[in-house]
Specification:
By secondary structure, the chain is α/β, with parallel strands linked by helices. 44% of the residues lie in helices and 11% in strands.
Length: 216
């Protein structure tokens, strides 16, 4: 059953007087969602926050949606079952879409292990706004880092359904960008990611000329 099947008939979308293009011009950027996916301890959050810092430093409005952070509030009612993981990603994608509509660049850092969930996120956000970044750090490196001791506990049988140990991770088939944090420094990885993002968010000369006065 889709959300449209359970949505009351009186719930309708209201269009405002300000379009996404207006906000994009105001902020001087094309809003996109940079979706970082990879194993736990692969470096997703480190990359996400480094990218946010660099974008803000050069004048871009952006925000990080981090896997752990959103479970303190928006998704604190969700566990780690397959169904809860599905819902976790669906909610984040919907939030990212709204933030993109507001003209913001969104950076997400979620394991998002299932290909179907990432495809759903792409469809919700919009293919043209979705940039999938595979943080392809080998599991041996992730386990060696293990900052929260999660791999150790999973190997000991204390945690079930842990991605990479007793639950699968479905690698992206054709990501927009692949980064391996074990073969380059955090600064180099962040620089590579920043370059890819800058290329996607730059407004064309035509878009820059579309001022509010011109559109009326």
């Amino acid at each position: 059953m889709s959300s449209d099947d359970i949505k009351p008939a009186h719930v309708v979308w209201h269009d405002g007087h300000v379009q996404t293009e207006d906000r994009s011009y105001l902020l001087g950027q094309r809003p996109i969602t940079v979706w970082l996916t990879g194993l736990s301890a692969s470096g997703k959050s480190t990359l996400a926050f480094a990218l946010e810092r660099r974008l803000v430093d050069i004048g871009h409005a952006c925000y990080v949606l981090d896997g752990d952070n959103v479970r303190h509030g928006l998704n604190k009612d969700l566990g780690f079952s397959c169904q809860d993981r599905n819902e976790n990603i669906r909610r984040i994608a919907e939030v990212a879409r709204l933030m993109n509509n507001a003209g913001l660049i969104v950076i997400t850092a979620f394991i998002s292990p299932y290909g179907d969930d990432r495809q759903l996120a792409r469809e919700i956000v919009g293919v043209e706004n979705f940039v999938e970044v595979y943080v392809n750090t080998p599991i041996e490196i992730c386990e060696a880092r293990d900052p929260k001791g999660m791999y150790r506990r999973a190997r000991a049988g204390q945690i079930s359904g842990f991605t990479g140990v007793n639950d699968p991770y479905e690698s992206p088939g054709r990501p927009d960008l692949t980064i391996n944090t074990s073969i380059a420094s955090p600064s180099e990885c962040a620089g590579k990611l920043l370059a890819a993002v800058i290329a996607r968010i730059a407004l064309s000369e035509g878009e820059k000329r579309q001022t509010f006065g011109d559109s009326q």
